[in-house]
Design goal:
Helix content is 35%, strand content 20%. It is an alpha+beta fold. The longest helix has 18 residues, at 174-191.
């Protein structure tokens, strides 16, 4: 892979003004040399007078958010306290939370609440887990524990990601930013550790099955023992094959439910035992019931703000939450996460 001739597809830029402020998004596909490991780029610039919040469900990808204005607070959101589609309950004490301008999020089986002050700009990079392993040179199970600043991993040169975030903010256009990402990520992919070909094959076999292929059959596909497959997944994907399959099954289930499939149809199509099995997994991994999620996706709780933007194209990954709900907070540190 070479990064000497960087160049993304032409960005699709969408600026807008609404009664409460302005916002802009820009999306592009990475240079072909970076695919399929680097899935996509999404730039964003939000300028609103008050806080915004979103519920983020687990997805089958690693997310790198490179911020150059403002910070994001991420809080674990299991147990239904966020209150999708209605006023949220009191925020429990003792929840894990982090506030950073730049965040690396690995594969996980639990939802999170993302909040910001209304003033936020940056670029979100979607990566396959095996590509994240190569770029950041660390065992990915470290990312499944919680969200971190990628410079804290210590695999890249000191402050390399913080410097990239700053450089992105200094550039005059989204296209220039995406070209810098092409060059930088291409260089990091070239110099990072190699991922086992069996891991990559097993990951795509699992994703193409929608998480329904049995682990024993998956191991047979790559000629490994189940134990060896589990060890490789823990290192280079971040979750065990069984847990990764749960994420992929639920990802497909959310998409089917939001495009009109019934819970019975969805449960059967996605390999759940029955509707109760689907509902239990949905509540655990999304923080709400299938019905609550589908209804929330069908409404726009914040008419004065930008539309919901899913992290993965064509998938139902996020819910924009109502402003003023009890789950939010108006306080955001002006210095959180500065490096």
């Amino acid at each position: 892979m070479s990064s000497r001739v960087p160049g993304t597809s032409r960005p699709a830029i969408r600026p807008a003004r609404c009664p409460d402020g302005t916002w802009e998004t820009a999306s592009a596909r990475p240079h072909p040399r970076l695919r399929p490991g680097v899935i996509g780029y999404r730039g964003f610039r939000l300028d609103f007078p008050g806080p915004r919040s979103r519920l983020e469900a687990p997805i089958g990808a690693v997310t790198l958010m490179l911020g150059f204005r403002g910070s994001v607070r991420i809080t674990e959101a299991g147990g239904g306290w966020v209150g999708v589609g209605k006023g949220g309950g009191p925020r429990p004490t003792g929840l894990r939370t982090v506030e950073l301008p730049t965040v690396l999020s690995g594969l996980t089986t639990t939802p999170v609440l993302g909040e910001h002050s209304g003033q936020l700009a940056g670029v979100e990079v979607l990566l396959t887990p095996w590509a994240a392993f190569r770029i950041f040179g660390t065992e990915l199970y470290e990312l499944s524990r919680w969200k971190i600043h990628p410079d804290d991993l210590g695999a890249l040169p000191a402050e390399a990601v913080a410097e990239l975030s700053h450089a992105l903010g200094e550039l005059p256009s989204w296209r220039a930013r995406f070209r810098l990402l092409d060059a930088t990520l291409g260089r990091w992919l070239e110099t990072g550790p190699h991922c086992a070909s069996g891991t990559v094959h097993a990951w795509y076999t699992l994703t193409h099955s929608g998480g329904t292929i049995p682990v024993t059959r998956l191991a047979d596909e790559v000629g490994w023992s189940v134990r060896h497959l589990e060890n490789r997944f823990r290192e280079q994907i971040g979750l065990s094959p069984k847990s990764a399959a749960r994420v992929l099954r639920l990802q497909r289930a959310r998409r089917l439910l939001c495009t009109g499939s019934t819970q019975a149809e969805t449960a059967a199509a996605c390999g759940y035992y029955d509707q109760a099995h689907l509902s239990g997994e949905f509540k655990t991994m999304t923080g709400c019931t299938p019905r609550e999620f589908a209804l929330a996706r069908a409404t726009r709780p914040d008419p004065g703000g930008p539309p919901a933007t899913d992290r993965l194209s064509g998938e139902a990954t996020s819910l924009v939450l109502r402003r003023g709900a009890r789950n939010g907070s108006a306080h955001f540190s002006k210095t959180a996460g500065k490096r």
